[in-house]
Amino acid sequence: MSNPVDYRPRPGEIPTAPGVYRFRGPDRRVLYVGKAKNLRARLSNYFAPLRTLHERTRRMVTTATSVEWTVVGSDIEALQLEYTWIKEFEPPFNIKFRDDKSYPYLAVTLADEAPRVMVTRNHRIKGAKYFGPYPKVWAVRETIDLMIKAFPIRTCSDSSYKRAMDSGRPCFPGQIGRCGGPCSGRVSIAEHREIVGQFVAFMASHDRSVITRMRKQMQDAAAAQDYEVAATLRDRVLALEAVLEKSAVVLPESVNSDLFGIEHDELAAAVQQFIVRGGRIRGVRSWVVDKELDLGLAELVDSVLQSAYENDEPPGEIIVPELPDDSEALEQWLRGMRDGRAVRLRTARRGDKAALLQTATLNAKHTLAVYKTRRAGDFVARSQALADIQEALGLDEAPLRMEGYDVSHLAGTNIVASMVVFEDGAPKKNHYRRFSIPEYADDTEALYQVLMRRLAHIDDDQDEPDPEAGRPGKFAYRPNLLVVDGGQPQVAAAARALADSGVEGIAVCGIAKRLEEIWLPGEDFPVILPRTSDALFLFQRLRDEAHRFAISYQRQKRRRDIGSVLGEIPGLGPRRVQSLLRHFGSVARLKAAEADAVAEVPGIGPVLAETIVKALRAPAPEGGVPIEAPDEEAAADAR
Predict the structure, then answer these.
(1) What is the pTM (predicted TM-score) of this model?
(2) What own/partner pairs with CB < 8 Å and gap ≥ 24 does 181-187 have?
(3) Looking at residue 635, what is its pLDDT?
(4) Bridge partners of 61?
């Protein structure tokens, strides 16, 4: 790695104009592409003292051997050039789009002599009108099947159409009634194009007046006893109503918007795009983004929109969870992709659009969870992760058994700790343990106590499963690696516990959540694993599982603590809690008291008394873990 001072430009050499910059590696490969309104101000951030940089930014800067920039005339030009270079060079430190597959569309080839409707993933058919995207191919085919019942247009391939027109024999779909093109002999080319226009107009607007007109024509035909025509119109009405039912109205008919829900963590982000046209959700896209550098939500929005509209025309309104800093330049760039028509980039805080954005975000959250679950279930990926951990930490063998530890408390009360076990990269839940800690000085001391208690049972052959005693067994199994939640202080406490207990042959490390770096005992710098690596993903899962298990036990203890329960009731402060306990003399009497008796305590009114009684008598949820609000969950993790 080079010293960044070796290639750092002089401050006076860097212009203050907007532009795009590139960091290059030893082989001249482009490592990172970025844009800036002020190149000098942005690049100076990368050449700050190494200790002040984000770990992954520091790795990029120290890996690079040169930096170069290109000055442009405006922010919009910088955005366009950045987009072009990212596509051209595929820099490893820029965002990578993962599972970003090509979605199917319904297309009508308006440039053909006799336009056809088809399923395609090709966005470059000349003169075609596109509808979608659809989440699955079968969804497009189902829509086409319904629509051609109402508007019988051509579905056969170009070769079949040409052969049928030359021979005078209908194509095979035409023979079975699934193609209504001119080759069937039922309509002329002009009549067919008129039906195609009706097809496109309905797909573009979903106008119910079309159904109203058809229904009236059906009634007129029935009144004239032309029952065959009436039956045909009836089938068309039913088909169009089925199409409308599959496209729920969520917003006013005048709304044409795209909404982006984004859920992200330290390693990846999931994106859910809802395509709303005429107030209806016409299509859904979902993909996962791998993050290499530490990016905030606004920066993710910037990259996501560039990817989303690489081939598609943006609508007039795009709703995102957070506006990027260069939102005005981004709007200009999107306007250029829309032939100069206005594009408005905005957030939604309340109303129907905010509710739909929340739904998109929930879908993104589910997508990220599924992505992680599938990745965790991949045996090959887990095996590679263990091998990478062995190499990165310099272990003699792969850590086939890893134990993760976390400490949880609420303002120094109800201190607990958790131990979770991963074998072969997968959770071993019947080997989990939880610890109560009677005295608390700080997290490192609590961690030391827990590890001393755990290490005292290493190689204890008597620890066999005993369901009656409530012991799941195998506490004595020797781990290859102890992983603690935290950085240098926590790792030092764990190493001290190993030394004081006299246990040898077990490695220890810590994972610091903010920067996702791995710390080893006695090291000044952490081990940096690639953001997309399965090794870091496994460390993250182990840490998060230890955190979840500790929090659940801490909540359970709080539930049994009457003071904690009373303290969670809105309007009930410490003085009123003391008054209640002093008035009733014992917890048992307070729990048995009715609301009228509780209301007699000074400072406690009838409404608050009812709330107190309900809180004390509410049954604990299954598993003994109370249901609490997200902010309380965050408070339980306060250090």
Answers:
(1) 0.45
(2) 181/114, 181/116, 181/153, 181/154, 181/155, 181/156, 182/114, 182/154, 183/114, 183/154, 183/156, 186/152
(3) 33
(4) none
